[in-house]
Amino acid sequence: MKPRAFLGKLLLALFGIVSSLLLLEVAARLLVPPRRTPLDAYYTADERGYTIHRRNLNAMIPEPETNTPVLVQTNREGFVGRDYTIDHPTSTLRLAFLGDSFTEALQVDVTSTFAALLERDLNARSPQINFEVMNFAVGSQGTGEELLRYQQYVRKYRPDVVVYFFFPNDFENNQYYLKYRDRFLSSNPADWQDIPEAQANLNAGRRDLKFRLLQTSRLAQVVDRRVREVPWLADLAVRAGLHDRGVMGASQNGVHPTFFIFHNPLPEAHRTVYKFTRQLLQQAAERAVADGSAFVVAYLPQAEQVDHGLWSALQQELPALREPGWDLRLPNSWLAEQAKEGQWPLVDLTPAFAGHYRQASTTPLYNWRGQYFNGHLNVRGHQLVAQELVKFFTDYLQRSGIITRHFQNITK
Asked: What are the beta bridge partners of residue 80?
C-alpha cells in the first residue's frame, strides 16, 4: 500500500473513532444525569498541592446527595466556617476538629454542622469563656492527610484541644500512604510534611489527563463508574495502571475490599493498615501534646453499624455477608484498645446512634442514597453528634483541668 493511501486510511479510521467517541459523549450527556456539583465548586489546591476548600466562599450550592441548596461558607485558610485570629485570646478556649467529609459537613448549612452547634451550645453553658470550635476537615481524607494538615494549618492557632474524628473509611484512605510509613513515623516533621497527597483520594491539585477527563467527560465518568462496579474490570484497570487498588485487594463475592475492616479475623493486608493507622494516631497524639494541646479521638459510625435494617438489607443482597466472621464493632473495639494504651480520651458516638435507630428506626440520621446505601449525616444526625459532644466536653474539660486553667488565666 502506498504511504499516501495508508495515511488516508489511518486518518479516516481516526476520524471514525473520534466521531464515535463524540457521539457517545453526546449520548451520555443526554441520558446520564451529571454530577450534581462539580468538585471545583467546593475544592481547590493550596500552594503546596494539598486539597482545601475554595477560600472565602459564601454561596448556596446544591448538595450532591439530595440536590438541596445549602449555605457553604469558608474562611481565608480554605476551611469551613469563619475566620479566627492567629493570636489565642486568654479568655478563649479553642477546639480544633480534623476529619473527613462527615466532619467537613457540606451536606447541611454551615450553621447546622455539629461543629457549629457544639460551639453555640458550649458558649451558652459557659458564658465566662469564649469557645471557638475550628473545623479543619476536608472530604475524602484520612488520618495521614489530617496529620499533614495539622502541621501546616492547625498548630499555629494553638488550640487547647485537638480532636481527630475517625470514620471507618479512614483505613481505606490510610492504605495509600503505607509507602511513606517511615517518613510519617519520623520524629522530625520536616521528613513527612511534604509527602504528596494520594491520588486515590480527592486531590484538587491533580492535573493529570485521567483526572481532567473524569472532571469534564460524562462518558469517562460512566465508564469509570462501571469499571469500579465490576470486579474483573476493576482488576484489569489496576493491571493497566488506571486505578490504584491499594493493599486491600479486590472485591470478593461482591463485597468491597475495604469492607473487610469489619471481618474477624482480619486479612493480612488489613491488619497492616490497622497497625499503620494506630501509628498515625500515635504520631498525631505526640504532635498535639508536644505543642501544648490535649488530644482526643472521636468515632463517627458507618451507617451499617447502627442501622440494623440497612445491615439486614445488605445481607440479603450479598450472601457473603451472611457468612460467619463479620463483626461490625471491630473498629470500635480496636480503637478503644488503642485509646486505652495511648491514654487518649475517646468518644464513641456509635451507642448514641444505635440507640436512636432502636427507638426511631424510621427517622434516618444519614442522607438516603438508595435501597442499600446511606450517605452523609443529615441535620438530625448533626444534632445528635452535637448533643453527645456537649455532654462529653462538659465533663472532659472540667475533669482534665482545662477549664480551671482557663479561669486562672482570665483572673491573672
From this structure: 74
385 within 8 A of 114, measured Cβ to Cβ: yes
* Residues 127-155 pLDDT 10s: 889 999 999 999 999 999 999 999 999 99
> What is the band of 223 on the pLDDT scale with cuts at 50, 70, 90?
confident
CA gap 370, 356 in Å, rounded: 21
- Count Cβ atoms within 10 A of the Cβ of residue 283 and give its class: 0-12 exposed, 13-18 middle, 19 or more buried: buried
Angle 280-285-287 from CA coordinates, rounded to 5°:
95
Residues 382/390, Cβ–Cβ less than 8 Å: no
pTM: 0.90
Which DSSP string do the residues of 175-215 spell out, in sequence order? Answer: HTTGGGHHHHT-S-GGGTTTPPPPTTS--TT--SHHHHHHH
Hey, is 1 helix, strand or coil? Answer: coil
Superfamily of domain 39-205+275-411: SGNH hydrolase (3.40.50.1110)
Would you list the domain boundaries of the chain?
A: 1-31, 39-205+275-411
